[in-house]
Structures are given as structure tokens and as C-alpha cells.
Amino acid sequence: MSLLLENIRKSYREPDGGSLPVLEIERFELGTGEQVALVGASGGGKTTLLNVISGITAPDAGRVVIDDTEVTGMPEQIRDRFRAERIGFVYQTFNLLPAFTALENVLLGMSFSRGRADRDRALQLLESVGLSHRLDHRPGQLSVGEQQRVAVGPRPGQPAVAAAGRRTNGQRRPGQPADHS
User: Mind listing the pLDDT tens digit for each residue in 48-86?
Assistant: First the structure.
């Protein structure tokens, strides 16, 4: 995966009618296999940047290119499909449905990205993040780390971009001890 940001500008309107500039990026490139962490104070524009990269929020100016595909110029429906298939998100809140089990939440997420929910694949995904023993648990019965892994679970392929709107220290590799905090 490669990422290119060029001449990105994003401002928000202030209650008094003024403009609050949040993003001003002349040029940023991230090559295949490279990783970067966004670190900064609350309100500093980190989530706005992730939303611009993924196409959730349109920049006021500039362009975002992921793997030679310009995201900023896409029609909304195509951009939404591109995001569902190519970008993995860990939101600040996990957006899990409280009445659904872990398995049902993953199946729902899969239906958005591929148009169909594959139960066997969902079971594999949950097993790969160490949650095969928690399939029938609802979000309120899971630890924060487990909820986070359910939220990440619906990505059927390797996303081109993985964007985290919060610390992901609840993530673990199979074989690591579970986080029950």
C-alpha cells in the first residue's frame, strides 16, 4: 500500500463565523510496508486527518491517493465501497451493536464490505484475534480489548490502510495472553 497526500487543507467553521484551520499538509508520502503513528494533543487534527485519508471527510483542498487511486475525486458511492474494501478502521468508539453477539457484529461488518456475510470466514476472523471462545458474547460482556478486536474483525482481506482513532494497545497476536481489563 502506498499513500500520497498533496496540498491538503481542512478548516472548520467557528461559532462566531471564523475559520479554524486544522490540516495544512503540503506533501506526505508513505510507501508500501512503511508505518507511521499520529501522535498529538486532543483536538490537534489526528482524527480529521484519518477521516480525510479514508474519504469520510472531504478536504477543502488537495488530494489523497491510495495505491495510485485518487480517493478525493471519487463519487460518494464508489468512495464508500473503496473504504469498505480497502481501509481498516478502529474508531474511538467501537460502534458495536449492543444487542448483537460478537459473531453477529462481525457478520454485519462483513455485509458492508463485501455485500454478503460469510459465517465460516467470520468464525476464522474471530479465531485469528483470539475470540473463538467469545462468539456468543454481547459487547457488554467483553473486555475493552475484546470489543476492539471484534470491531477490527470484519475486515475480510488485508486493508490497504489501517487507521486507528484511538490507542490500539488492546490488540494482541494469537498466543498472547488475553486482556480482561
Answer: 999 999 999 999 999 999 999 999 989 999 998 898 888
- Which of these, 22, 15, 14, lies nearest to 43 by C-alpha position? 22
* pTM for this prediction: 0.62
